[in-house]
Design goal:
single chain
Amino acid sequence: MFYLNLPHKFFISHLNSGTYALFLLCNNFTQEEIAAMFQVTRGTITRMIVDQIAPKLGVIVANASNVIIKAKQIGFQYQLPFNLFGDTIVIINDHENME
């Protein structure tokens, strides 16, 4: 597991879209780990999943598991947010699960 060391304001300014959190959730990061990276509480991440991400994906029973399932169905785990990692090369070694 790796952790990002980026400025707090960077994450807060982009937290509303949920793109970063959803990408990380789809790649097996826990809500606690994401909250630590964003320097927010786990409750903030949970609210983002329920209030912002789930409705955008059309998830009726809004919980993290259902959101992750729906996001993976559309391949979100492979849609790397373009500026999440700055000038870092990221290799996602998931050859076995690629379909």
